[in-house]
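### Sample
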Amino acid sequence: MRRLTWRAATLVAARWETAAARTLVLDVPDWPGHLPGQHVDVRLTAPDGYQAQRSYSIASAWPAGGGSRLELTVQRLGDGEVSPYLTDVLGTGDQIELRGPVGGWFVWDRHVPGPVLLVAGGSGVVPLMAMVRARALLAAQQPFRLVYSLRSPEDLYFRRELEQVQRGGRGVEAHLVYTRSAPPGWPVPPGRLDAAALAEHGWPADAEPTCFVCGPTGFVETAANLLVELGHDPQRIRTERFGGS
């Protein structure tokens, strides 16, 4: 088993996805590569030696032929020890420590045939976007469908890319479910993700899709149960969750 080591990562660029979520573009020398869906551990060390560590999903696809750039999309948590520093303080040229990649179950394998269903709740879209990007980078043929649940239009991550997908994603379809407020003229009133939305915008169970569900614990449990109720094989449902229940 490969031993994970801490590496210095330098911020080379950053962009805001929402008012509370920032994508960090990091240069990580000797990065070993990663699979879409994996995450890293990030460690901060204060001048007095105090350390805080959190895990963040990788947003970027591993570039063909290798490379040292890595993207993390981080949502600021009001009571967080790490995320406020990463979103509001970390500047170009600053360094952090990271370790990874971590995870081997919640990953998309380009060699597995058949359609893919991605179900995201809030910031749970980050590792799923890595899968969408990897599919495009590899020119893979498996059709993807993304069902993305979010509170409001202001909470939408990766807006430009998802708008392009909605205009014609060349094998990728995206559907947004707004839970609290929707854009003017949106055809469906705000509400929680339900079986009807998954049945209409996901894949039918007899298509035997590989399903990836990511988001807060309560969302993931609900969405996974809905998929099972719709007839999906539990062995084909992979979940990644964060936060309390």
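The longest strand covers residues 6-16. This sample (Ferredoxin-NADP reductase) is used throughout the tutorial notebook.
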